[in-house]
Design goal:
globular, binds S-adenosylmethionine, 9 strands, alpha/beta, 14% strand, two-stranded antiparallel sheet, Arc Repressor Mutant, subunit A, Rossmann fold
């Protein structure tokens, strides 16, 4: 081979490498998509604000910068530019409309919890080097502390947790509540699961335990659903002793927020409060069942980057609850892949 042929082959290899990695390498388009969602561009354009100058004015943007960003999205198939400086919504960008049932705009909004969660990944190198959550490095305070200091962000977090009500119905429907009178939802957020459980089961009463501000949001939800009379609200940390004597202590999406030692401490508090006759019910998703390795891998990394938590397999949960003095008596995987792990004193 001549030098020229070698050079041509090397250049081709180089181009092929860029082309092959492009779909998993690009940070520009994902960021542009999030900025478009945050500025509600799909809503504005669909409502007739299609010209660049007006679009910039209505979205509080710089016209030149906005145009450059929109054209990056246009070449990637999100939005179209039917004539110079005029933009239109197409099938892909329609997914960014605020009224789209997927809630996609909220997930991508950089001012809300979804977008902030993505921005935490700019600290992934720190996480991989140290094993510590990137959140603190990127935002200056540990995850729960940061949320606590920013009520709007915390409310956005609560809303994200209770989005997709079909998952709540699926989780509540996967368990037999008929023997119980008193359900405690520990780290129960804005009471969306508790409300779901109580609504269809009039013989039950409930207690919501969460941090004080979150419990207040729960109070509003329970009142708006006419369930306030059947519920107590307790604003406290679940690392402190919990209200004793309940029939079942539910931890939905809580244990995976924490690394093993903290998770065991929370489970111990539940076990102490449940006593000899109570139960502890762990509800997790994201591939806990073993059926969705992609979801497991993504959430396992996400939980570490955010709060230092982790996803676990069913065997991991068996070991974890044993450390808290509990034993798993049954497990159940629901149609939407919620995993219910029923525990008793062991
Ligand atoms: C991932 S969310 C799950 C919320 C709810 N269980 C659900 O399924 O939607 C975790 C919850 O733990 C609460 N939390 C975090 N730290 C806490 C603490 N130290 N004590 C009590 N609750 C806490 C948060 O406020 C949040 O509502």
């Amino acid at each position: 081979m001549t030098n020229d042929t070698n050079l041509a082959a090397a250049e081709q290899n180089c181009a092929a490498a860029w082309h092959t990695l492009a779909p998993v390498m690009d940070l520009i388009t994902p960021m542009a998509l999030r900025v478009a969602a945050t500025l509600r561009l799909a809503d504005l354009i669909d409502d007739g604000v299609t010209g660049m100058a007006e679009l910039a004015q209505r979205s509080g943007s710089d016209p030149d910068a906005l145009g450059r960003m929109l054209r990056q999205l246009v070449v990637r198939g999100v939005f179209t530019e039917p004539e110079p400086d005029v933009f239109a919504v197409n099938e892909l960008s329609a997914l960014l409309r605020s009224d789209h049932p997927s809630g996609m705009r909220t997930w991508l909004d950089l001012d809300g919890f979804g977008g902030q969660m993505d921005l935490a990944f700019t600290g992934l190198l720190h996480t991989v080097r140290t094993g510590k959550p990137a959140w603190e490095r990127v935002f200056g305070a540990p995850f729960w502390q940061h949320l606590d200091a920013d009520p709007a962000l915390h409310a956005s977090f609560d809303a994200t947790m209770s989005a997709s009500p079909e998952y709540l119905t699926d989780a509540a429907g996967g368990y037999d509540w008929s023997d119980f009178r008193h359900v405690l939802d520990i780290g129960g957020g804005d009471a969306s699961l508790l409300a779901e459980v109580l609504r269809a089961r009039p013989w039950l009463r409930g207690t919501l335990v969460d941090l004080p501000d979150t419990v207040e949001r729960g109070r509003q939800r329970l009142a708006s659903e006419g369930l306030a009379e059947r519920c107590e609200l307790v604003g406290q940390s679940f690392f402190e002793p919990l209200p004793a004597g309940g029939d079942v202590y539910v931890l939905r999406g809580v244990v995976h927020d924490w690394d093993d030692d903290e998770a065991v401490a929370i489970l111990r508090r539940c076990a102490e409060a449940a006593g000899e006759s109570g139960r502890v019910l762990i509800v997790e998703a994201h591939g806990t069942s073993g059926d969705d390795p992609a979801s497991f891998a993504e959430m396992n990394l996400r939980m570490l980057v955010l709060s230092g938590g982790r996803e676990r397999t069913l065997d991991d949960y068996r070991e974890l609850v044993a450390r808290a003095g509990l034993r798993v008596t049954s497990t159940h995987v629901t149609p939407l892949d919620n995993v219910l792990i029923d525990c008793r004193p062991g």
